[in-house]
C-alpha cells in the first residue's frame, strides 16, 4: 500500500519533470540557447534518474542516464545542440513519459533504440570542440580508493569545489532513514535542496520486484556536494552521522575559497585553479555569475517550489556564508516546499464553506446594522469581517483556477511535428498563457483546441510554394491568444492561411445532402460557415492523417458547448481564418432563473430558456387552448405544448387554470421546444452547481442542486428530463418544421418592436420604442421643482430636466396632475431629459405599420393603430429639440450637407428606418432603402451609391455579412459603410471594425450620424 | 456491543445509534422537499454549505406513525470514506447518551417485524424500557 503511494508520488513528480524537459527542449528547437534552460532540463532528467533509482526502474534509469550524459555535454558547450539532437532527445523523453505512466511494465520495454541514438550523438562529437576537460583532482574514499567519475560529474564537482563545497557519500537505509521522511521522493527533494547530487546508485540485485523494494533492507548511495559541514547534514537530513562519509579531494579548497573571495572575476580565479579551454570558461563564468546573483536574492529563490524543476539553476548554497548557524537555518528554509498537493474535493469543500461564510456574514451585518452606532468599535470590526470574507471567497475561487498555459504548452510540440509531417513552415505564437480558467474547463479544453490547431496547420496554412505565389511569407503563422472579455475568456486560434471558401462549403453541403439548393441561396455566410459544425463534414481536398477525416468539428462544437461556451468562425478568403472560443471562467457557476411552484423554489439554467410569456385571461392574442387533453399555446403561428411544472413533479393535481394569469417559460433543447408553466418567476441568480446527492437515486427532472442566496437548498431543473417525464414526444417532422419556423420566428422577431404605451394629461395614447428607454421612475408630484420656465427633478444625485410632451406636441392638454407620476429616462440621447407622463398603459411587442401620414407634426414619427386605438409614436429627438432648442442649434450647419449625394439606408425596423430617413433627407441626402442586407446588396448591384448606413441585426442577411460582401467586391470595396446599431458593447464594436465598417455609431444621435457621414465621404474623396 | 449510544425518539419509540457514527445533531433546520424523488427522501438541507440528504427513517422502519410535527430535528451521520455525501434523518426528539455493555444487549427478538429487523442491530434492556440500536450501515445502503 505504502509502496504504491510512493510510486504514485514518483509518477506525479516525474511527469512534471518530463514536461520540463519537453518544454526546455522545444525552446532549444527554436534556437533559444539559454544556460538556464539547459540547466533546467539537465536537473529534471537528473531528478528522474535519481528517484527512479529508488524503485530500481532499470529502463528509466538507462534512458535518463544517456540523456543526462548528452545534456551534460551540451551544458559544458562540448556539444552543439542541433535540431536532430533535439528530435532524438524528444523521442527519448516521450519514451520516458510513456514508461513513467506505466511504471509497472516499464522494464519490459525495448529502449535500446533511444540509447543507441543518443550514444551515437555523443560519440560523433564534433572534433573541433575541445575534448574532455582535464579535471585535475582525485577523489578518494575512506579506504583511500580512488572514486571514478563520469566527465559531466567532474564538472559538477569542480563547480562545487569552486564554491567551497564538500563532497560526501551519503548512505540512505530505506527502512530506517526513510521513516523519518515521508517518502524517498521527499528525501531526494530535501537532498537536492541543500546541495547537489552527483550520482546515486543502489544494489537492487536482491530485489524481486516493485512490491518488495521498500521491504528489503537496501542501501542507496548518494554522491553529494554541499556547502554544509558533516554535522549539519545530519541535522538537515535527519540521518545518522555514520551514514555520511566525507570524501577527500586533493585540492585545497581553502585556497580556492580564498581566491574566490579576493577576486570577483570568476573566470580568472578559475584559471588559476584549472586552466581550461576558452568555451568552457565562458560557461563556467556564467554559471558562477548566476550563482553569485542567487546569493543576493536567495529569499526569492527559496520562494520557488523546490520540486517544480522550473528553469532555474541548481540551488547551491553560497560560498561566503560561513556561519554555521545561518547555514542550518537556510538549509531548513530551503528544504520547506512551498507548494502543497491538495485534493480537489478539499478545494470544493473550501469553496462551499466560503459561500456559506458569505451568507453568514450577510446575516450578521443585517442583524447588527441597527447597533452599529450604539456599540463603540463595532463598525470597524464589521467592516473588517466584511472585507476579509469577500477576499477569502475570491482567494478560494482562485485555488481552482489554472493558467491556460497548461493546455497551450503542448502546442509548440504539435506544430513542430505537424510542420515536418506536412512539409509546411509554421510558426506558432502564443499570447495570454497566464489567463486562468477553472480546472475542469482547462481539462476539457485540450481536445477541442488540439483539433483546431491541427486544422489550422493542415487546412488553414497553405504549402510554402503556394504562399509564395500569393505574395505571402513562406512561413505560415498560427496565433493562439487567450484574453478576458466581459466576464468570459476568449481563446482565438488565428491562422494567416487560405481562409475558408464559402462556396466550397456550400457545394460540399449540397453534395452531402446537408441542405437543399434553395436553402443554400438564402443562407448567409455565417450560416454556411456553421455548416462546418455539422456531423460528417470535411472540406479538406485530401484526407491526410493529420486531419480531414470528416469527424471532429461537430465534436469540437459539442464539447465547447458542453462547457457552457460558444465557438465562432471568422474568415477572409486568402487572408486567414479565426476560430474564437468564448468560455465561462468557471463551470461551477451558471446563470439561472429562480421559479416557484407550490411555494417551492427551483433554479432553471438560462441556457435553455428562450423567452418568457405571460398570458392574461381573456387576451385574444395569446391564449392557452385545450384539445385532446393537451394544452397548447399559439406562439407566433405555431403550437407550443404547455406543461405545468407542478403537474410534472406531482406537486399539484389540477390542470392549468386559464382563468388566471399564466406564466410560461419557453424552453428549447436542441430543436425541441415546449412551454413550462410555473406559478411565479423570481429573479435571475448566479448559482453554484452541486451534483445531485447519490441517495436521491434517479431523478430525471433535476440536473443538480444549489444553495440559494437565502441559504436554502434548491433543485436545479433539467428541461430535457422534464420533457421526458411529461411524455412529450417530439416527432422528426415536428423538429424539421420547427427549425423552419424558428427562422420565420426570428424574422418576425427581428422586425417586431417593443413599444411602451403611455398617456399624458390628455386622452391620446403615445408610444416610445423600448430600446430608447433606460428606465421608468415613479415620482411624486411634489418632487418636481420649478426653476424659471423649466421643471426639474432630482435623479441619482443630479438634477434632471423633465418635460411634458403635451406642451410641445399638438395634442390635448388638461390642467392638474395626479400625485403620482412617472418619468421616462431615455437612453441613447446626448442631452438627457426626463419625459413626464401620467400613466403607463402597457408594453407590447408588435410590428408597427404606420398609417397614412395624416397626423403629422414635429416630434412625432407618425401614428399607428394598436388595440383599436390610434397611437402616436414619439420621435424623441425631435421632441427634445423642441424642448431644448439650445442644444440642437449647431446642427443647422448640417442642412444641405448631404448635397444630393446618395445614401443607402439599410434598416429592418420600420420605426428606425423612418426616423433615420427623415434625418438624412433633412440634411439633403438622396435616400435609397433596403430592409435587410440582401435587399441592400441587390440595390448596390444596380444603383450608384455614395455611402451606406446599415443596421447590424437584420433578418436574411445581417450588417456584418453585408459589409463583408462589400469589402470583398472589387467594385464596391472602397465604399464607405457606417454601422448604426443599438449594440453598444465593446465586443460588437470590435466585431464591427473587424468586419470592415468605417464607423460604428449608436442609434440614434442625429448630429453624430451626420458628422460621421460627412467625415466618411470626405475621407473617401481624399483617398480617391 | 459495548460503548456509547445516542438515543432518540421516533414515532414514540426509543432508538439508539452508536455515537461513533453520528456527526452532529441539527435543530430547527429548514429543508427543501424534493418532489418526484423516492418516498423515503424527506428533502435536502444546507449544513454550512454542504447539502445533506434527509431520509425518512420512520418510513424506512415501516413505523407507520407520522413523525411529530413542529421543529425539525435531525441527526447527521458521519459520511463514509467511499461516499463523502452527507445524510441525515429526521427524529422527533433526542434522548441522552447511554453507556451500554454486552450483558444488557442482545440481538433483535425473533418476533420483531421484518422491516425493523433489517435496521435494528441490537436491543438493549434498559431499566425502564427497551432501546433499539440501529445499524447505521443499513441506512447508508438506502
UniProtKB/TrEMBL annotation, chain A:
SUPFAM superfamilies: ATPase domain of HSP90 chaperone/DNA topoisomerase II/histidine kinase, CheW-like, CheY-like, Histidine-containing phosphotransfer domain, HPT domain, Homodimeric domain of signal transducing histidine kinase. It catalyses: ATP + protein L-histidine = ADP + protein N-phospho-L-histidine. Keywords: Kinase, Phosphoprotein, Transferase, Two-component regulatory system. Its EC number is 2.7.13.3. The keyword Kinase applies. May play the central regulatory role in sporulation. It may be an element of the effector pathway responsible for the activation of sporulation genes in response to nutritional stress. Spo0A may act in concert with spo0H (a sigma factor) to control the expression of some genes that are critical to the sporulation process. This is Stage 0 sporulation protein A homolog. It comes from Heliobacterium chlorum. The lineage of its organism: Bacteria, Bacillati, Bacillota, Clostridia, Eubacteriales.
From TrEMBL, chain B:
SMART domains: CheW (SM00260). Residues 2-142 form the CheW-like domain. It holds the Pfam family CheW. InterPro entries: CheW, CheW-like_dom_sf, CheW-lke_dom. It comes from the Bacteria. Signal peptide: none annotated. This is Chemotaxis protein CheW.
Amino acid at each position: 500500500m505504502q509502496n504504491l503511494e510512493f510510486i504514485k508520488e514518483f509518477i506525479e513528480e516525474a511527469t512534471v519533470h518530463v514536461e520540463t524537459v519537453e518544454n526546455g527542449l522545444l525552446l532549444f528547437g527554436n534556437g533559444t540557447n539559454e544556460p538556464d534552460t539547459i540547466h533546467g532540463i539537465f536537473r529534471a532528467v537528473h531528478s528522474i534518474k535519481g528517484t527512479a533509482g529508488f524503485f530500481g526502474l532499470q529502463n528509466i534509469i538507462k534512458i535518463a542516464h544517456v540523456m543526462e550524459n548528452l545534456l551534460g555535454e551540451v551544458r559544458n558547450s562540448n556539444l552543439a545542440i542541433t535540431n536532430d539532437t533535439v528530435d532524438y532527445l524528444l523521442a527519448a523523453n516521450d519514451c520516458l513519459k510513456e514508461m513513467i505512466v506505466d511504471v509497472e511494465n516499464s522494464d519490459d520495454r525495448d529502449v535500446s533504440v533511444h540509447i543507441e541514438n543518443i550514444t551515437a550523438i555523443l560519440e560523433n562529437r564534433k572534433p573541433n570542440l575541445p575534448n574532455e576537460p582535464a579535471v585535475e583532482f582525485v577523489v578518494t574514499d575512506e579506504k583511500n580508493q580512488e572514486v571514478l567519475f563520469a566527465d559531466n560529474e567532474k564538472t559538477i564537482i569542480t563547480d562545487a569545489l569552486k564554491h567551497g563545497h564538500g563532497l560526501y557519500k551519503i548512505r540512505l537505509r530505506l527502512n530506517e532513514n526513510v521513516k523519518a521522511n515521508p517518502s524517498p521522493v521527499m528525501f531526494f527533494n530535501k537532498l537536492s535542496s541543500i546541495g547537489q547530487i552527483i550520482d546515486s546508485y543502489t544494489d537492487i540485485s536482491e530485489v524481486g520486484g516493485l512490491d518488495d523494494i521498500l521491504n528489503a533492507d537496501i542501501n542507496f548511495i548518494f554522491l553529494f556536494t554541499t556547502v554544509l559541514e558533516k554535522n549539519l547534514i545530519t541535522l538537515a537530513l535527519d540521518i545518522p552521522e555514520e551514514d555520511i562519509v566525507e570524501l577527500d579531494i586533493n585540492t585545497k579548497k581553502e585556497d580556492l575559497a580564498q581566491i574566490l573571495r579576493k577576486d570577483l572575476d570568476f573566470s580568472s580565479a578559475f584559471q588559476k585553479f584549472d586552466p581550461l579551454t576558452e568555451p568552457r570558461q565562458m560557461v563556467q563564468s556564467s554559471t558562477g555569475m548566476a550563482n553569485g546573483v542567487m546569493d543576493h536574492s536567495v529569499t526569492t529563490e527559496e520562494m520557488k517550489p523546490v520540486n517544480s524543476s522550473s528553469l532555474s539553476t541548481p540551488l547551491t548554497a553560497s560560498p561566503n556564508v560561513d556561519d554555521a548557524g545561518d547555514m542550518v537555518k537556510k538549509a531548513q528554509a530551503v528544504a520547506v516546499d512551498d507548494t502543497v498537493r491538495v485534493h480537489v474535493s478539499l478545494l470544493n469543500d473550501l469553496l462551499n464553506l466560503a459561500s456559506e461564510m458569505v451568507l453568514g456574514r450577510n446575516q450578521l451585518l443585517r442583524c447588527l446594522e441597527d447597533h452599529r452606532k450604539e456599540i463603540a468599535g463595532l463598525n470597524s470590526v464589521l467592516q473588517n469581517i466584511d472585507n476579509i470574507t469577500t477576499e477569502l471567497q475570491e482567494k478560494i475561487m482562485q485555488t481552482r483556477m489554472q493558467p491556460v498555459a497548461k493546455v497551450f504548452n503542448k502546442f509548440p510540440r504539435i506544430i513542430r511535428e505537424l510542420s515536418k509531417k506536412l512539409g509546411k513552415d509554421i510558426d506558432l505564437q502564443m499570447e495570454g498563457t497566464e489567463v486562468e480558467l477553472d480546472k475542469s474547463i482547462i481539462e476539457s479544453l485540450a481536445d477541442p483546441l488540439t483539433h483546431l490547431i491541427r486544422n489550422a496547420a493542415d487546412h488553414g496554412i497553405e504549402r510554402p510554394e503556394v504562399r509564395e505565389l500569393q505574395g505571402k511569407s513562406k512561413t505560415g503563422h498560427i496565433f493562439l491568444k487567450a484574453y478576458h472579455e466581459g466576464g468570459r475568456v476568449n481563446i482565438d486560434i488565428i491562422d494567416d492561411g487560405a481562409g475558408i471558401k464559402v462556396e466550397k462549403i456550400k457545394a460540399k453541403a449540397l453534395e452531402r445532402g446537408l441542405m437543399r439548393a434553395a436553402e443554400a441561396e438564402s443562407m448567409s455566410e455565417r450560416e454556411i460557415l456553421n455548416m462546418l459544425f455539422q456531423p460528417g463534414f470535411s472540406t479538406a481536398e485530401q484526407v491526410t492523417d493529420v486531419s480531414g477525416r470528416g469527424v471532429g468539428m461537430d465534436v469540437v462544437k459539442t464539447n465547447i458547448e458542453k462547457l457552457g461556451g460558444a465557438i465562432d468562425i471568422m474568415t477572409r478568403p486568402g487572408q486567414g481564418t479565426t476560430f474564437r472560443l468564448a468560455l465561462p471562467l468557471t463551470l461551477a457557476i451558471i446563470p439561472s432563473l429562480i421559479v416557484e411552484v407550490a411555494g417551492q423554489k427551483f433554479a432553471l439554467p438560462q441556457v435553455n430558456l428562450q423567452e418568457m410569456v405571460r398570458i392574461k385571461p381573456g387576451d385574444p392574442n395569446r391564449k392557452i387552448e385545450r384539445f385532446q387533453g393537451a394544452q397548447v399555446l399559439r406562439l407566433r403561428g405555431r403550437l407550443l405544448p404547455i406543461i405545468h411544472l407542478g403537474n410534472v413533479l406531482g406537486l399539484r393535481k389540477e390542470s392549468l387554470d386559464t382563468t388566471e394569469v399564466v406564466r410560461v417559460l419557453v424552453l428549447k433543447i436542441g430543436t425541441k421546444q415546449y412551454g413550462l408553466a410555473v406559478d411565479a418567476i423570481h429573479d435571475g441568480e448566479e448559482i453554484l452547481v452541486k451534483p445531485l446527492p447519490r441517495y436521491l437515486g434517479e431523478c430525471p427532472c433535476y440536473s443538480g442542486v444549489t444553495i440559494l442566496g437565502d441559504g436554502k437548498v434548491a433543485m436545479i431543473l433539467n428541461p430535457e428530463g422534464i420533457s421526458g417525464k411529461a411524455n412529450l414526444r417530439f416527432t422528426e417532422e415536428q423538429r424539421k418544421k420547427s427549425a423552419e419556423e424558428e427562422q420565420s420566428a426570428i424574422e418576425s422577431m427581428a422586425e417586431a418592436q417593443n413599444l411602451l404605451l403611455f398617456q399624458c394629461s390628455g386622452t391620446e395614447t403615445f408610444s416610445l420604442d423600448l430600446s430608447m428607454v433606460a428606465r421608468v421612475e415613479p415620482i411624486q408630484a411634489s418632487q418636481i421643482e420649478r426653476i424659471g420656465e423649466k421643471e426639474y427633478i432630482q435623479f441619482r444625485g443630479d438634477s434632471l430636466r423633465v418635460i411634458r410632451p403635451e406642451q410641445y406636441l399638438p395634442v390635448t392638454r388638461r390642467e392638474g396632475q395626479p400625485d403620482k407620476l412617472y418619468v421616462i429616462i431615455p437612453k441613447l440621447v446626448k442631452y438627457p431629459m426626463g419625459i413626464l407622463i401620467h400613466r403607463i398603459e402597457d408594453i407590447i411587442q408588435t410590428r408597427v405599420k404606420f398609417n397614412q401620414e395624416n397626423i403629422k407634426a414635429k416630434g412625432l414619427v407618425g401614428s399607428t393603430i394598436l388595440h383599436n386605438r390610434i397611437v402616436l409614436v414619439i420621435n424623441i429627438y425631435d421632441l427634445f429639440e423642441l424642448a431644448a432648442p439650445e442644444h440642437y442649434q449647431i446642427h443647422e450647419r448640417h442642412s444641405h450637407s448631404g448635397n444630393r449625394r446618395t445614401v443607402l439606408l439599410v434598416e429592418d425596423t420600420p420605426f428606425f428606418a423612418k426616423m433615420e430617413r427623415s434625418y438624412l433627407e433633412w440634411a439633403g441626402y438622396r435616400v435609397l432603402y433596403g430592409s435587410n442586407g440582401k435587399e441592400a446588396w441587390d440595390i448596390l448591384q444596380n444603383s450608384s451609391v455614395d455611402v451606406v448606413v446599415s443596421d447590424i441585426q437584420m433578418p436574411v442577411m445581417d450588417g456584418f455579412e453585408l459589409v463583408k460582401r462589400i469589402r470583398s467586391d472589387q467594385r464596391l470595396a472602397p465604399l464607405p459603410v457606417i454601422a448604426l446599431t443599438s449594440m453598444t458593447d465593446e465586443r460588437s464594436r470590435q466585431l464591427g471594425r473587424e468586419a470592415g465598417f468605417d464607423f460604428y455609431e449608436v442609434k440614434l444621435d442625429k448630429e453624430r450620424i451626420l458628422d460621421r457621414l460627412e467625415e466618411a465621404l470626405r475621407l473617401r474623396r481624399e483617398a480617391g | 456491543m459495548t460503548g456509547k449510544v445516542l438515543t432518540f425518539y421516533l414515532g414514540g419509540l426509543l432508538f439508539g445509534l452508536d455515537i461513533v457514527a453520528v456527526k452532529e445533531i441539527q435543530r430547527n433546520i429548514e429543508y427543501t422537499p424534493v418532489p418526484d424523488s423516492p418516498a423515503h427522501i424527506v428533502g435536502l438541507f444546507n449544513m454550512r454549505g454542504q447539502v445533506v440528504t434527509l431520509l425518512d427513517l420512520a418510513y424506512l422502519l415501516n413505523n407507520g406513525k407520522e413523525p411529530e410535527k413542529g421543529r425539525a430535528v435531525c441527526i447527521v451521520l458521519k459520511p463514509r470514506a467511499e461516499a463523502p455525501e452527507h445524510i441525515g434523518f429526521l427524529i422527533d426528539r433526542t434522548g441522552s447518551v447511554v453507556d451500554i455493555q454486552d450483558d444488557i444487549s442482545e440481538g433483535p427478538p425473533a418476533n420483531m417485524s421484518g422491516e425493523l429487523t433489517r435496521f435494528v442491530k441490537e436491543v438493549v434492556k434498559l431499566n425502564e424500557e427497551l432501546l433499539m440500536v440501529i445499524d447505521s450501515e443499513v441506512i447508508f445502503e438506502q
